[in-house]
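Entry for the shared binder. Reason: the reviewer on the internal report wants the predicted structure included alongside the sequence.
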Amino acid sequence: MGEGTFGQVLECWDRERKEMVAIKIVRGMKKYRDAAMIEVEMLQQLGKHDNGGNRCVQIRNWFDYRNHICIVFEKLGPSLYDFLRKNNYRSFPIDLVREIGRQLLDCVAFMHDLRLIHTDLKPENILLTSSEYVKVPDYKVSSRSPKDGSYYKRIPKSSAIKVIDFGSTTYDRLNQTYVVSTRHYRAPEVILGLGWTYTCDIWSVGCILVELCSGEALFQTHENLEHLAMMEKVLGPLPQHMLKRVDRQAEKYVRRGRLDWPEGASSRDSIKAVSKLARLPNIIMQHVDHSAGDLINLLQGLLRYDPEVRLTAREALRHPFFTRDHLRR
């Protein structure tokens, strides 16, 4: 069904339960085995508290086979990333983004209440529970539309999602500074080495919601300085008090109290990639017609640079983007 650096996921028939399951077969190296055992422990922990089991993927069982940890899961549908990819990276309708966002934040709030931080939230780690979709005409025909005239886009039949991959999940501890999260979804405090906590998950959720609305990752980059420069282009300047406290590794990104950009850029292409990014409100308004204002306001709360003032998952769930009636169109 898929593969990653950790190993492969196979679709299997469980002869005892008479159902299809997904089995994650983990590579036999120590670091992957260790992560798999953390994942098993976290899944059991989450399963105990997740009434109805509709936030996180359910673990059925696990076993060790020829030095491979094998984790048996309920079978779910495609990841949000796979769905986007098969849909030519066309965006999701705003009402679907709202439903997915609400469930995602509910899962994050649930984890944070248990003092757990996921640390690797991204569209690949959020699965639709069903593979079913409908095709609707796509009036926003863009340069990305295929040449074969398929002016239709897929919409999932159900907005139900579950979060997966708890191999990097950790308990909240003071002063965690090691690097977490997949690059595009990594919070500024992680890059600057300022220590991180629950709010690194919230930043990732903000990046994911923009991606679902626009069809592409917000920060498409592979290097730290360029990443920080992209943040400034989309969200405005990084706060002085954060730049003053950067750790030894990150000092090279700052000069005279501001980001060393564009002077420190690694190439002309890098400067170009940053300069062609739009401000956050413009990115959203290009793709969202109604309720764009509420969404922009929510994203500005999720993507606050200072983790101290970033929204919590519970605060985000009370935001008008989720609570307003949306005039029952």
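Summary line for the report: The chain has a mean pLDDT of 94.
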